[in-house]
């Protein structure tokens, strides 16, 4: 239990704490089924709010970090047998076994920090801090010329930083000794492309060749003008369709953020074809499966339009993630930003496996099973892939890429 309390203490101290849930009451007569702790911003400053759930009733207490530690260490073992801690760095689970001892497990983080409720020192943690002028954030109106983040733009400021954290986590997977080659598919107005350029060139001092690609001429002209104005070395923009884009050399990082519907599949297919080391996608408007799923599958889920739409979107991303696993990538699906800001909040982060031997047969079986269960035949992702990659997904080609 000590290790768990240390992890909790550290996350509170360095403002990476996202949420903690105590559950599985140990006393048969217990009325409180769980306690949830999350950061809140009060007039008095930042606190952790503990919400106790008793049937339909909830009661709240606002605690300082020290009070949280005291509260949790008293509750664990006496009142609750499970604890799930979510931090920006890891998910940590603690479970009391029947013999009374504790089992702790750690997994990669699955929840984004509570972006609208920063802890008092969270701003110090941002890769682009509030208060330090950043040219592209000034240009797009997120910061004032002296570097202060405008109140109305704070959500965008946090989104940019969250994206940079997700990229920052995988930088060690990219080549360290040469110019980094990046493509951003469906870059749109490109504030995240400029952010990426800032991270790589200003924060990490890397030389880059970043291409932002979009179908819209006016958007690309605008982004090109901003890049010239801000002197963004190595950042260029092109008009084009994702599926037709030819990369002149190997691409290290492929990004596709909110590219509509099957444009994300085209981006994934291009990235795989180029042997890209890291792929980051935030899918959007996943309509394809909603029209292709079997009508007889889970009728209760298909009866209501909104449920069907969300289910289809999740299924699409599950299939994409599983396909990437088969195609040689360690894949995670993580929260991009809080659900309260947008429902389009999942990011698929895929890192090419190096020197690992995956259970390929199992991965292919999972992929195929998912398609069969959903009653899917041809899907866009497979159409965009090369024939050999399609065969790999179908289990008829096993010369898997291992670099
Ligand atoms: C919702 S915007 C996202 C912009 C930006 N990536 C972001 O996250 O803020 C989607 C962009 O993808 C572009 N797009 C959609 N399909 C595309 C395709 N097949 N090829 C290139 N761009 C595409 C659209 O023109 C649009 O600008």
Would you write up a description of this structure?
The protein has 403 residues and is of the alpha/beta class. It has two domains: 2-107, no CATH class; 150-394, Vaccinia Virus protein VP39 (Rossmann fold, 3-Layer(aba) Sandwich). It has helices at residues 2-13, 65-75, 122-125, 135-139, 154-168, 191-203, 217-229, 263-273, 288-292, 299-302, 305-326, 360-374, 380-384, 387-394, and strands spanning 17-25, 34-42, 45-54, 57-63, 80-87, 91-96, 102-107, 180-185, 208-214, 235-239, 253-260, 278-284, 329-335, 346-352. It has a seven-stranded antiparallel beta sheet with strand order 4-3-2-1-5-6-7, covered by helices on one side. The protein has a seven-stranded mixed beta sheet with strand order 10-9-8-11-12-14-13, sandwiched between helices. Bound molecules: S-adenosylmethionine (SAM). The site of S-adenosylmethionine has 18 residues, from strand 9, strand 11 and helix 8.
